[in-house]
Each structure stands twice: as structure tokens, then as C-alpha cells.
Write a structure and sequence with these properties.
481 residues, alpha/beta, DNAb Helicase, Chain A, 2 domains, 9-stranded mixed β-sheet, 21 helices, hydrolase activity
């Protein structure tokens, strides 16, 4: 009697969670209720439209969910999204009620239970992959069961039967793959337009211009989808150079009529410290003297003017520490949905947390590097990633090389452009320049996937923590200004 009750109960549970295939096999079909609930919760949170779009792009539909209640909820989410309505627990409940599915789904209590199952959408991409993978396995199991049954029934034309099975497997595989393939004519049109613009002198740089003339001549700017690595030893000026580029890209000026929004992940400095550095650099005011309470009227006026210019720019700073690569990508997607980004700056790569604490740091950095490159391609934005160099160049008293990139060789493989900042030790004028608070810094273009390599000189105005275009006559002035 107990066995019969357990059998009936198991069948009821299968009817609630799965389908007849599971009952027939007497085995649990692949699924993850936790991942399904987490994904649905993410779809009902603050940035629901972004997560739902990711689901659609990932080929997730209502049938991708194992539990029927979850299928109902996702169908309601898709309807609300298609109508352009806000998505939350209340609107989902109303939608399910209008569809006559609310009680069948579990009512208001279950909707609230789902929505409260996670507190962040940072791992939504992971949940999408889990739900997608389990759904694919269930599809293959169903097809395999059908194929076995037809084999037992016998087939008059085995060639036709094999062709039908092959076509079904191909259909399942095709439904899981994003439509990223395209005829070469579409990107070719963009290339031809770029060439025509260059020949017509409408663009000296086709990508996002940095404001540093020699660098822009060699790279034609930073291009969408590129991962640019800027590496140096500590205290050489990585952050200052990156923020000078961000400033040149985002602040309107005579030489920058088309300013772009910038997203900065500042994992090392607080947003206040970063803002202070950008303000003093832009105003041409010594930050150390300002901290000591010394400033002239002219400097105070310069600070006011610089603050007004910076406020007009779309510079978005995220200074949350201990982010992992999935959280970085999720935040970037969110900002990209609100602003047309011209550049993303990450300061710096080695401060990003690994996803798997059991993996070696080298493997973690390799995973982070791949994630950065994927983010650049996904958002079609150049990503400037700051990185540390090891001590080898200092020990050997030589210029840095790509092999000096710290903790992983994957960085140089993933990067489209590698820039190495260094102090030229052989410069006879170094001491004089230091005395004048103007230092010549070398910028090595160590790798460029689609262009030449080489090096350029930059002027570093140390008391303003500002880089500028370098000239022999006067190593000052630079950027778009």
C-alpha cells in the first residue's frame, strides 16, 4: 500500500514539474529549479528589460523551463515586455490573472516567492546558460525516446528515417545558436564608408580618438569591439593617462565636436578621489598645494571653469570594489542601455575577483581577460583595460615587453592593442625635466592587430598628473582641450 502511494505521489510530482517522458523513463529529466527561479526573479527586478533581452538573444522561450508554473510566468514576462510595460511582481500577477493562469501557477504567494529568491541580476547570464543547457538535454532525450520507439516499430525506408532523425537533431542545434553569421557585404559596406571618409579628409581617426595626436595617427583611434590593454609599473601614470583619454573623449571642445559617454570601473580609487584628480588635471592646479589650502584666485577660477566643463560630460564612474567579470559585464550592459558609450575604462584588471577560488590566479586572469574581450564585442565599444607589469623590465634595466604583463599570457593574446607606458632611463634630459615638473614618458605600441607597432613620446606634467602631446620645443599642451 505504501509503495502504491509513493508511486502515485511520484506521478503527481512528475505531472507538476515535468511531462510524460519522465514518467515513462522513471528517471528525472535534466533541470534546475533553482536556476529557473533565479532567472525569473532577475527578469522581475529593476533592469528587467535587459535580462529579458538577454533571454531572447539566448534563445530562451517558455518551453525552456521545466516546471509548468515557470513556463506560465515567463510567457507573461514576454507579453509584458512586448507591450513595453514595466515588469514586476504586481504586473506579472495581473497578466497571469488575465490569462487565466494565476491559480494554476501558484497564485500571488508563489510569484512573491520567486521574486524574492535572488537579490542581484549579476549572474543572470549564468542562469540563462543553465536553463538553456537543461532544456536542450530534455529536447534530445525526447527525440531519442521517439527515435527508439520508431526503431522498434520498424521502418520501410531506413534512409528516409535516418534523414528525418538527422534533420530533427539539426533543428534542435540550430534553435540554440544565435544568428551571428552574416554575408561579408554588410561589414564591407562599413569598411568602404570608412575608406571614403578618410580619403575625403572627413576623419583623421575613424575610431574613438584619444586626443594624443601621435597615438591617434598610428591607431586611427580605438575601435568598437577592441580590447586595448594599457600596462605599466606602479606610479608611472596608468590611471592618469586613462583618465586624460576619457576626458578628451567625453568633454566637448573645439577639437571634439562629437563627445561620447564614458564608463569607468575604478576598482582602486574612490569616485571622489578620481573626480578630484580629473578636476585638478583639467584646471591645471597642483592637487597637493590645494590639499594644503593654498590656491590663487586664478586657480580657483580655473577650478570653477573646469568643473563646469566636466559636469557637461557623460562620465559614469562605478567605484565598487571586488567585482567579478560577470558583475562588470552586467553593469556595463545596464549603462550601455542608457547611454551610447564611446569607451569603457577598467582600472585595473588584476583587481577583478576570480569566479572560481580553486583555480590558479593565472587561470582566473585568463578568464577575466576573455570576458573583457567578449564585453567589447557584445557592446560594440572599445574597452581600455589597465594592467600591471611585473618587475622584469626594472631588474634587467630595459624597456617593457608584452611578456612582462603580470600573471597571464592570455592578456596579450586577447588584446587587440597593447600599450606600455615607461620612463626612458637613457634620456639625458630626464633630471632637467623632473626639475621642471615635466617628464618625458615613452608609450610603446607593442601590439596592434590591424596596424603598425612602434612608440611615441608623451609629456607628463607631474604636478597636474596630466599627460600631453610631446614636442621637442615645448613638451606641454595636448589633448582636445
Amino acid at each position: 500500500m505504501a509503495k502504491e502511494f509513493q508511486k502515485k505521489r511520484r506521478f503527481r510530482d512528475q505531472s507538476r514539474d515535468g511531462d510524460a517522458d519522465e514518467a515513462m523513463l522513471n528517471r528525472r529529466l535534466p533541470h534546475s529549479i533553482e536556476a529557473e527561479r533565479a532567472l525569473l526573479a532577475a527578469c522581475m527586478r529593476e533592469n528587467s528589460a535587459e535580462v529579458i533581452t538577454d533571454c531572447i538573444n539566448g534563445k530562451i522561450n517558455a518551453e525552456s523551463f521545466f516546471r509548468p508554473a515557470h513556463r506560465n510566468v515567463f510567457a507573461a514576462l514576454l507579453d509584458l515586455n512586448d507591450q513595453g510595460r514595466e515588469v514586476d511582481e504586481i504586473t506579472v500577477e495581473e497578466k497571469l490573472n488575465s490569462m487565466g493562469l494565476l491559480e494554476e501557477t501558484g497564485g500571488r504567494a508563489y510569484i512573491n516567492e520567486i521574486s524574492e529568491s535572488v537579490g542581484s541580476t549579476a549572474f543572470a547570464t549564468n542562469w540563462i546558460e543553465i536553463v538553456k543547457e537543461k532544456a536542450l538535454l530534455r529536447q534530445l532525450i525526447r527525440l531519442s525516446n521517439q527515435t527508439v520507439e520508431k526503431c522498434y516499430e520498424g521502418q520501410d525506408d531506413i534512409t528516409t528515417f535516418l534523414s528525418e532523425v538527422e534533420a530533427e537533431i539539426y533543428r534542435i542545434g540550430e534553435s540554440q545558436v544565435a544568428d551571428s553569421a552574416q554575408k561579408i557585404g554588410k561589414p564591407l559596406d562599413k569598411v568602404i564608408k570608412m575608406i571614403n571618409d578618410i580619403l575625403a579628409k572627413r576623419h583623421t581617426s575613424y575610431g574613438t580618438r584619444t586626443g594624443f595626436l601621435d597615438l591617434d595617427r598610428m591607431t586611427f583611434g580605438f575601435h568598437p569591439g577592441e580590447m586595448i590593454v594599457l600596462a605599466a609599473r606602479p606610479s608611472v601614470g596608468k590611471t592618469s593617462f586613462a583618465m586624460n583619454i576619457a576626458e578628451n573623449v567625453s568633454i566637448p571642445g573645439p577639437n571634439n565636436p562629437d563627445p561620447k559617454a564614458i564608463l569607468v570601473f575604478s576598482l582602486e580609487m574612490s569616485s571622489e578621489s578620481l573626480a578630484q584628480r580629473v578636476l585638478c588635471s583639467r584646471a591645471g592646479v597642483n592637487m597637493n598645494k590645494l590639499r594644503d589650502g593654498f590656491s590663487t584666485r586664478e586657480e580657483q577660477q580655473a577650478i570653477v571653469e573646469a568643473a563646469g566643463e566636466i559636469k557637461k560630460a557623460d562620465i559614469i564612474v562605478d567605484d565598487q570594489g571586488s567585482l567579478n567579470i560577470l558583475e562588470v559585464r552586467a553593469k556595463a550592459r545596464r549603462v550601455s542601455s542608457r547611454y551610447k558609450l564611446g569607451l569603457i575604462v577598467v582600472d585595473y584588471l588584476q583587481l577583478i575577483a576570480g569566479m572560481d577560488n580553486r583555480a590558479s590566479r593565472e587561470n582566473q586572469i585568463a578568464e577575466i581577460s576573455r570576458g573583457m574581450k567578449s564585453m567589447a564585442k557584445e557592446l560594440e565599444v572599445p574597452v581600455l583595460v589597465l594592467s600591471q607589469l611585473n618587475r622584469e623590465s626594472e631588474k634587467e634595466k630595459r624597456e617593457p615587453r608584452m611578456s612582462d604583463l603580470r600573471e597571464s599570457g592570455a592578456i596579450e593574446q586577447d588584446a587587440d592593442v597593447v600599450l606600455l607606458l615607461h620612463r626612458p632611463r637613457s634620456d639625458d634630459q630626464e633630471e632637467n625635466q623632473r626639475a621642471e615638473d615635466v617628464e618625458k614618458i615613452g608609450l610603446i605600441l607593442a601590439k596592434q592587430r590591424n596596424g603598425p607597432t612602434g612608440s611615441v613620446d608623451l609629456a607628463f606634467l607631474r604636478k597636474y598628473t596630466r599627460f600631453a602631446n610631446y614636442t621637442e620645443e615645448s613638451p606641454v599642451g595636448g589633448g582636445f582641450g
